[in-house]
Amino acid sequence: MGVEILSTGGTMRALQEAGVPVTAVDEYTGFPEMMDGRVKTLHPKVHGGLLALRDNEQHMAQAKANDVQMIDMVVVNLYPFEQTIAQEGVTLEEAVEQIDIGGPSMVRSASKNFRHVTIVPGPEHYDRVLAEMREYNGETTLQTRKELALAAFEMTCRYDAAISSYLRKQFTEAEGFPTVIAPKLRKVADLRYGENPHQSAALYQDLGANEPGVAGAVQLHGKELSFNNYLDLTAALESARDFEEPTAIIIKHLNPCGAASADTLALAFEDAYTADPVSAFGSVLGFNRVVDAETADQIFNSDWLEEVVKPRFYEESGLTDLTIIGAFVEAIIAPGYDHDALEILRGKSKMMRIMLLEDFAPAGRVKDLDMRSIPGGMLVQDRDYAAVLPEQWQIVTEATPTDEQIRSMVFADRIAKHVKSNAIVLVQGTHIVGCGAGQMSRVDSSIIAARKAGDRAMGAVLASDAMFPARDGLDAAAATGCSAIIQPGGSRRDDEVIEAANEHGIPMVMTGMRHFWH
Q: Are residues 338 and 451 in the same domain?
């Protein structure tokens, strides 16, 4: 199309080898490329040609007087800083050399002058620009230049954020949160709608996160994910990977209505589903093991529900008046699926989403921040991955928990962390039998948990995500029929609460660690 090309270094050599006429930038500027290529495009003849307003007579006169030619398009791919620091063992010196200076400077100059200059900030824009040039005799439209300028500033914003985040880790030893947070978020998809149909929504992926999370999971089957699916899948992921034994989690509206650990994944899923099969309708599942054929056969299986789950639930709970609708499952997330399991699941439903996240629990996830938006700002905290081991608990009652109760307490305490506050969880062995979530009063949460558990509440271990502020909460907990209690403690009336536990003859331990989840 008759475009005259200025270029530097490796790009220029590639063009020359391809037989494309090209002029070296240093030949145009009259100033040699120097300092190992650190200085080559930082020159008035380059930036003057980019920033000059073509309809400004003074600008054009100054350009002519200084032999500055107009540059109408900039095509730049920045040094691969993010790819460099992602490599294992990269040194600070190697990373610093990949901080592009001239590239972003030209990108910003071209973008600022979008009325006259086209910026092409990445290969993903090449086809569009070439198509417009062919259609408009070598020109681009103003709307395209505006959109490309926006894309360019978004790109340099992300690039600078990656540099500042990396250098902060290298240059400071101070603990605490950064003065400025510049998240590197890239839109992955527009969603059908948000929490409700009248709300628009989109999914963004955090390019600086230490783990892929649900945003980086691979969908193997099913219809597109909704806003609420992503939230529930995240809850399933966070809960399932908190356990070492084969574990199944059943999430409904962010809360685990079923959860269990067992010797096999299939048994864990049966235990989890039997906890509350009424609420499990339309749920999201999380597994911390590769899903096998036996487990897959149980999922979305109405015959299994009728023949196994219903009889067991009614017999164990005594809640025979409850209606169990069906075995409908919205989505699944797991670190893998064996071949037979995947074929079985795909045959269950065309709609059920099957999500694969191979990097299920990366160690680096503990370094990521929990960020929640509020109108006008953002709240930031460490993610809640902490746990208190039994040897660190304080047994505060006259009665001492048995080894079996301690095992159940460990499970219950971990699950309570993933239940909306105020949270009360009842556990038999290592599976939920009742859950009271999100109530304004801990007494109400205890009542709900006991109602969900039915006869299974008798002898269960009870976990509370936070302290009992007074003995009425402990009395309500004892009224469930539980045999032992685990809670953080920390109330001004702890003595009163301990006295109540002693009156009920219930062993109680305090962990000293609260797990609110609002």
A: no
What is the Cα–Cα distance from 45 to 388, expressed in whole angstroms? Answer: 64
For residue 108, give the CATH number of its domain.
3.40.50.1380
Q: Could you tell me the residue range of the domain that residue 402 belongs to?
A: 390-510
Phi first, then psi: give them for residue 368, nearest 5 degrees: -75, 155
Confidence (pLDDT) at 100: 81
Q: Where are the alpha helices (DSSP H) in 70-225?
A: 81-85, 92-97, 102-112, 126-135, 142-171
pLDDT at 95: 86
Last residue of a domain, one of 171, 192, 209: 171
Burial of 136 (C-beta count, 10 Å sphere; 0-12/13-18/19+): exposed
Paired residues of 258 in beta bridges:
250
Give residue 257's pLDDT band: very low, low, confident or very high (50, 70, 90): very high
pTM of the model: 0.82
Structure tokens at 176: 């605490």
DSSP 8-state symbol, 194: S
The one catalytic residue in 59, 116, 223, 253 is 253
**pLDDT, tens digit, 9 for 90 and up, residues 378-419:** 898 989 999 899 999 999 999 999 999 999 999 999 999 999
Q: CB under 8 Å to 492, separation ≥6 — which residues?
A: none
Mean pLDDT, to the nearest integer, of 32-58? 80
Closest CA to 271 of 263, 281, 280, 261: 261
Told to judge if 45 belongs to the known catalytic residues of this protein, a careful annotator would answer no
Name, in order, each residue with C-beta under 8 angstroms of 303's C-beta and a sequence gap of 6 or more: none
Clarify whether 112 is annotated catalytic.
yes
| CATH number of the domain within which 433 lies | 3.40.140.20
**Residue 358 pLDDT > 80, yes or no?**
yes
pLDDT in tens, 161-184: 888 888 887 887 767 777 777 767
Q: For residues 408 and 238, give the distance between their C-alpha atoms in angstroms, rounded to a whole number.
A: 19
Q: Which of 59, 112, 223, 310 is catalytic?
A: 112
- H or E stretch including 387? none
